[in-house]
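Final paragraph of the annual report: two paired records, presented back to back.
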Amino acid sequence: MRSLLFIPCFALACASHEPPTDGTAPTSPTTPAVQLRGAVSSVNLVDDCPEPETPAIPAEQAAKPSADVAPGAALYGEPGPGFGPGCTQSTVQLTLAHDGRTTLPIAIAEVRVVASGKAVGKVSVRAPQRWEADGRYSAWDQTIPAGSEVKASYRVGLPDWKAPEVAPDGYGRDLVLEVDVVFEGRTITLRSSTFQRERPHVVVT
């Protein structure tokens, strides 16, 4: 009689440790509740340009009809024709998404340039933007809506090129960019593929 009572209790204990049968994986206490999916899509490391300034237009010129401006004439505050070294801003593009059910924020904690497996300098990051469906970038508040993929772009600065791995200016060296993304209290490092610093472009003005 005692053995008959023992058998149902043993079966109950075993059933309580069986995985779910509805196709869902058991939840692990070490598995984050919401997963971030991210990648460094591209890196363009060229220059670190000053932020553009919009010059004030004198009232008399602002009031002048456009017909009074000769064709091909430079507008106020624009340089005249010629050649000059253009300043191409360095940028990094990220692709970001998550499997949460609400809009969630991210933040960039740090961005590093790596050469020969060694971090050779940190770079600043600013001006977050996202790619819109109508084919343009717009200001971005660094939030990711549920069920959406964000194609983001940041302006980045340049590292100190004094490290022997990249001295004197980083040209011709294989580089990797590491981006530390803070998401849901965790820091996740995204790494780019290998790239090289581009030389400044000369543009017609």
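The closing record of the year follows.
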Amino acid sequence: MEDLQYKPRLKMKRNILLVTLMLGTMVACKKENTTNTISTPSETAAEKAKKVLMSGNWVMESNAMAIGNGPLIPIPIEDCEKDDYLKFTSTKQIMYFGTEKCELDEPSIDSMSYSFNSKADSITFSDPENTSTFGFSNPSANQIVFNASSENFKQKIVLKRK
């Protein structure tokens, strides 16, 4: 019985970027940031986005969701998740690390895969149970904003540099 209570909790933590629904339509966020970006003049948007994501460790700054056209409602980050951080690897894996446990048997390290579309203005996160696509644009060296939406749902996730 205890194991059945643990699995949904672990699943939610492990899929922090996938939250609840599979999303089919994505929207790119228009965020201009001309300072503190990681790029060179000859880099394509795809190269820049990949370089920014893989350039360090990231923590969840905020996560918000809305039903339909309603307002985005913040989803609180639990105390046991506040030390969690993500590392985007060159092997297209997102590694999750965290020492504070929400459950006793929770792993300290977990992962999921990611891939970019050909323009690198959206990213798809996948694990064996879920796949979600988020749009983004102009990621800065210190912050990345992911946006996703469908007819009935929208979500905004903000990662900041650890």
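Confidence is low (pLDDT under 50) at residues 1-37. This concludes the annual technical report; the extension proposal builds directly on these records.
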